[in-house]
Write a structure and sequence with these properties.
single chain, L,D-transpeptidase catalytic domain-like, 3 domains
Length: 268
Amino acid sequence: MSAIRSSSRRYVIAGAAVLALAGGGLGLAYFYPALGPIAGSVAPQLYVDSMSGAQIPSRGRFVLVDAASARLYMIEDGRVQDSMRVIVGAPETPTPELKSSINYETLNPYWHVTREVAKAVIAPRVLKEGEAYLNRQGYEVVSSFANPQPLSPAEVDWKGVAAGTATVKVRQKPGPANSLGRFKFDIPYSDGIYLHDTPKKELFAQDQRALSHGCVRLEDAQRLAQWLLGRDPPAASVPEQQVALPRPVPITIAYLKPGAQTQLAGLQ
């Protein structure tokens, strides 16, 4: 009888150990889902909690912008290859969460000034300084952005633009003062949100980098351009020169929580 009880205890202890190991494995899978399955199984999506869609492709290149920490990650085959600081939308104009793809990069882009910036910034400066302000900043008034024809600034009701009762189409020509710098990365179906270079590199030294009107400014746009192409980008010969990527690269913009940022660090 004693032998039977001893044998039973051994089975109970062994069973408890198996359950404990299984429970520990489930716990690890819950807290560290980015670790994925055991070796030899089918490669899944890699998961990061609180990321929009929660999926990092296990194959190919992928761009992740964490707007919460103002940082961009270049990920390939499920592992972080490189990262950089970015500037994201200010609290009143936050960068939206989205999932899309990057199909090409634009060299020497024009900046199509938004209606809000034309009203709040450009019109008051023109009223104060005249057309000299436009010339100094490389701005030009055009009939439209789709099929632009130059217009005389003298024909614009700048007081109406400043008051919000009139509109104007203004674009900034490529050059050292251009707010988009030398590179722009359009994102389809993003309601006008895109990644771009910037001449104001000093802003990346700030810890608080929620400063833009919604678009994402890049600390080193040329480095991202090179990574996306897999080679050095060509020297631009004309304004708005578009260079197609070898294949579309998925992009996600999300606001990651601290735990998810820790998970992402595990993909280094």
